[in-house]
Specification:
alpha+beta; Tetrahydropterin Synthase, Chain A; 4 domains; three-stranded antiparallel sheet; 19 helices
């Protein structure tokens, strides 16, 4: 019960908690200083360890243990504030008397004093315990978040883990002694002792869990690493509750004459008892804070009486529902009754015996996988490349590029008429699935623990035997076309003999990378082959051009001959028709036709000549006389000369 100095000022001196306040405050300060030093040492060690062994269990263990100790430090400091208040009530401090000779303060001093007074009033209104508790809570939450990483790998710590586990257990034993001492304190003499004991249990639990993780850590055990990381959730929950209490205390009225309560009281830490009684703790908290007594409400009393039967019914129904199994379209299920497989369930809803009398083992149903024969140490995740962007690095199939999925094989080759061996890197992939039959599902489940590893080891053995009978020239030439089929048939045969239930759908040879010397020689062969093909194509083009040109000339000559023959034939036909027409005309017209034809031919012949027309009536009875001196000789001197004979035209 809180003490009000205004009403009970004279009675506080007789109360045990006020009489022992100074002793309590001194003890809390010593304990808090020791735990704070250990917490700071753990945080500093975690910083140094993070520089050299970041991916180990050490940073998580050190930081989480330091946060658990800081939870206890926050509780001890909050209780120390309460004890100091009681001590000041019994022995009030002497008031400072201002000196009489002090002069007026300068303006700068008055401004600084005013600001300091305002800050002091604000701090008094909020309260130093509230600020310190909020600060410790934020530090704990930040530290836990920094080391919360569930993807840490498992690792063996060696002798250092055993030594650290022993030291952690010694510290847990010391805190246990302190917790038992506080738990045995009477509430009338020290009301905060019970709450402090609960906060110490948080640190003790974290220390025990850390020792367990350190002792059982190894290369093949992941649960110590996961448990060490999840251990930080307990101090983080307590710190979150303390931060919430600090924020809610800002809305509570502050009275200097009223005895303060312990602010660092945790409901989460109060649940760390055996047997756990969370409802009882909640009931006490509501009764102390708000005056609500849940024992007087009949509904809660009925719920308490009916809780166990209802819980049993719910557990029974839940246990029966474990016999109902739902399988998706990509899954099948092997139903085991008392450990013996009796049926293979298809996709859908199925009912069987509840666990552990019956269970269903899930098997793939037609899911297709792609498996490479060799995987690099750090395989890169598949990244989708944009359609318009550059090609991804995984698409590089050049011989001088490195490929993480290549597998080295020894293959026979010849060098200067001598037999030798060379190393060839190749990327072979298998597309497989679990067989669709029930027997294949049973075989894949019970005959092999790791199907990809089985396929990879079988393929490696097949590749070694297959390449032992091949040569490098054949592999780079005619044997490459049937290489994938031969490997696929051999691997499928071995898997069938092992009764693995695996079906090889396709075997793909992604790339074959010969040695550097063979690659250079093969590049030369490819260049010569490309040059020969280009020369053949060029000569074929020239031959085709000449053939077409000859065909064009022959076609032109043939067409010209046909045209000339057609013209001659047409002329002959026209002459024949004309002769027949003239013959017919002569038969019908006689001499008139001949004269008419003669005149037309004469007109045609004299159409371009110079004519001299003489009439018979000129000169009377005598014939006309022609003077041929105006006519010149022909232009061609070699032409025969004829004497012009005078004549008369009548």
């Amino acid at each position: 019960m809180q003490v009000d100095l205004e009403a009970q000022g004279g009675e506080v001196a007789a109360l045990p908690r006020f009489q022992q306040a100074a002793s309590h405050a001194a003890r809390l300060q010593r304990w808090g200083a020791v735990l704070l030093g250990l917490a700071v040492l753990g945080l500093v060690a975690a910083v140094f360890v993070d520089l050299f062994a970041a991916l180990t269990i050490w940073p998580a263990v050190l930081v989480n243990l330091s946060c658990a100790l800081l939870v206890a430090v926050a509780g001890l400091q909050s209780a120390c504030w309460v004890s100091r208040w009681r001590e000041e009530v019994i022995n009030p401090p002497a008031m400072a008397v201002p000196e009489a000779g002090a002069g007026p303060e300068p303006p700068q001093g008055r401004l600084a004093a005013t600001l300091a007074l305002r800050w002091q009033r604000l701090l008094q209104q909020i309260g130093a315990p509230t600020l310190w508790l909020a600060g410790w809570s934020l530090l704990i939450l930040y530290s836990v978040v920094q080391v919360f990483n569930l993807s840490l790998p498992a690792s063996a710590l060696g002798l250092s883990a055993s030594v650290a586990a022993v030291l952690v257990l010694l510290l847990a034993f010391a805190l246990l002694v302190l917790e038992r001492q506080l738990a045995q304190e009477p509430p009338g003499e020290w009301p905060e002792a019970g709450a402090l004991a609960q906060l110490l249990r948080v640190a003790i639990v974290c220390l025990l869990v850390a020792a367990l993780c350190l002792l059982f850590s190894s290369d093949g055990a992941l649960w110590p690493v996961r448990l060490a990381v999840l251990m930080g959730l307990l101090p983080a929950l307590v710190a979150g509750e303390l931060l919430l209490r600090a924020l809610l205390s800002l809305f509570s009225p502050q009275r200097e004459q009223l005895e303060p309560r312990l602010l660092a009281h945790s409901f989460v830490a109060d649940m760390l008892r055996w047997p756990p009684q969370p409802l009882l703790s909640l009931q006490h908290e509501l009764h102390n804070r708000f005056g609500i007594d849940l024992r007087q409400i009949w509904a809660f009393a009925y719920m308490r009486r009916a809780f166990l039967p209802v819980l049993l019914v719910v557990l029974a129904v839940g246990w029966l529902l474990t016999g109902v199994h739902e399988l998706s379209m990509q899954s099948r299920g092997i139903y085991e009754r008392f450990g013996k497989p009796v049926e293979v369930f298809g996709p859908g809803l199925h009912v069987g015996l509840p666990w552990p009398l019956g269970r269903v083992l899930t098997v793939e149903n037609g899911v297709v996988h792609e498996l490479a024969t060799s995987v690099g140490e750090n395989p890169q995740p598949l990244q989708l490349a944009p359609a318009e962007g550059p090609a991804p690095a995984i698409a590089n199939r050049l011989w001088d590029a490195s490929h993480v999925n290549d597998k080295s094989q020894v293959i026979a080759s010849g060098d200067a008429q001598q037999q030798s061996f060379q190393i060839v890197n190749m990327d072979v992939r298998f597309v497989y699935r679990i067989g669709l039959g029930d027997a294949a599902a049973l075989a894949a489940t019970y005959n092999s623990s790791d199907v990809p590893t089985l396929i990879r080891s079988t393929a490696s053995r097949v590749l070694v035997h297959d390449f032992a009978a091949r040569t490098l020239d054949g592999l780079l030439g005619q044997d490459r076309t049937g290489l994938a089929d031969d490997i696929g048939r051999a691997v499928q045969g071995d898997l069938d003999r092992l009764d693995s239930g695996v079906e090889i759908l396709a075997t793909v040879v992604e790339a074959i990378h010969p040695p550097a010397g063979a690659a250079n020689a093969y590049h030369g062969v490819q260049a010569a082959q490309i040059g020969a093909q280009a020369l053949i194509s060029r000569e074929r083009g020239a031959a085709a051009e000449q053939t077409n040109q000859a065909q064009l000339q022959a076609s032109i000559a043939s067409d010209q001959a046909r045209a000339d023959a057609r013209e001659v034939q047409a002329a002959a036909q026209a002459a024949d028709l004309r002769f027949a027409a003239e013959q017919q005309a002569y038969a019908s017209a006689g001499q008139a036709f001949v004269l008419e034809h003669y005149l037309s031919q004469l007109s045609l012949g004299l159409s371009q000549a110079k004519l001299l027309i003489l009439d018979h009536r000129l000169g009377g009875d005598s014939a006309p006389t022609l003077d041929l001196r105006t006519f010149t000789l022909p232009a061609d001197p070699s032409a025969p000369r004829k004497a012009a004979q005078p004549g008369a035209v009548h």
